[in-house]
Amino acid sequence: MKEALRYLAGVAGPSGYGSNSTAEQVTQDCSCPLPSHHQLTAIVTGATSGIGAETARVLAKRGVRIVVPVRDLKKGAQLKERIQKETPEAKIVLLEIDLSSFASIKRFCSEFLSLNFPLNILINNAGKFSNKLEFSEDKIEMTFATNYLGHFLLTELLLEKMIETAAQTGTQGRIVNVSSVIHSWVERDNFYFNQMLQPKKLPMIMKEALRYLAGVAGPSGYGSNSTAEQVTQDCSFLRPSYHPLTAIVTGATSGIGVETARVLAKRGVRIVVPARDLKKGAQLKEMIQKESPEAKIVLLEIDLGSFASIKSFCSEFLSLNLPLNILINNAGKLSNKLEFSEDKFEMTFATNYLDFLCLVPGKFLKSIAQGASTTCYVALSPKTEGVNGSYFVDCNESRCSSLANDESEALQLWNQTRAL
Ligand SMILES: NC(=O)c1ccc[n+]([C@@H]2O[C@H](COP(=O)([O-])OP(=O)(O)OC[C@H]3O[C@@H](n4cnc5c(N)ncnc54)[C@H](OP(=O)(O)O)[C@@H]3O)[C@@H](O)[C@H]2O)c1
């Protein structure tokens, strides 16, 4: 919980930076006004969009020559134009690559090496998530081939150059592998490394992801793409109107709560809607009754962030003498600043009650400038000089999952990758 609050409040860690620091801020003291023959050179993969584009822009602004390996030279040229508009003296070199193809990576490397540039920084940032089962030209599952094997080969082929550059310039090289906190979602029981290298057998985690994406039905007969209407189609409660099921649905004035209330009402359930804003509640009622004129919707005021308001809602509800068959605790808020409820509890905790998953989407709420900060910090800051094999989150050293830290799995991965 502390971690989540630190993240949300952007509290700075030992580096002096936190989750809301931008790439520009964390590199403000890292300009490299070196003579051009000593200019740092960085390769940034996946720089045509997102975090990679911001990383390239900020490093170029700090005086680093950027080599951009791209699949699409047109997109690369647009990036170069954008960067040079802001930093006219920026040196941007575009070379073609497809990280899912071993042959293309080899071609890129020999082309890069023939330019005789030094290589100080390698940022393995490109990432794709293939939402269907597809294979690279080397017959390897596409996401694994692009994100991991491609960068592995690229690093292998450039390592000697980095060592040579470090020896010649006396400046240590840096390799930054961009990862994601999502790595910690992988459970040991679902991780079958051997299967990862055999395209025909997918590891469990991948299977789960593909099941989800393809909407494959589970034992209930429904899957990720089943709608609320579909899964309740056999559930119309043809009860006498004086004895319908009654459900309280919190957070029904927007999002999933609206749909939950609408579908339950359509199935004959009386819906009690606790709403902070009765006007929004009335709009919901109108919308539902337009579709299901016989729907019974009861609106009552509540603020889930206030004990007093919850108590007053409950006594009001109880005074109505309605039955209560279903209670759907759906409301959730994500407070992106540190604020407290009237009862002096942190607001998100007070409203959602440890509904921790509600905090997870917050991880995706960073701006691109904030998303690129850790990469730029690790690539340029004097504070990360000599740091090796560490994992950084929000510009501070952190712990990766125990599975990611497992030396024997790492060795197996290393050996089998090399064998490929
Ligand atoms: N965005 C987030 O919320 C987030 C969170 C945590 C970690 N990350 C990590 O940050 C990194 C960048 O993420 P992003 O969201 O900025 O990505 P993005 O906007 O989707 O960009 C992906 C980049 O990778 C390139 N790429 C994909 N497949 C390629 C291939 N076969 N060969 C060469 N380049 C290829 C794309 O090039 P094209 O233009 O050719 O498609 C694009 O430049 C990824 O490693 C991701 O896992 C992102």
From TrEMBL:
Q: Identify the domain of life.
A: Eukaryota
Q: Do you know which Gene3D superfamilies this protein is assigned to? A: NAD(P)-binding Rossmann-like Domain
Q: Which Pfam families does the record associate with it?
A: adh_short
Instruction: Kindly provide the name given to this protein in its UniProt entry.
Output: Uncharacterized protein
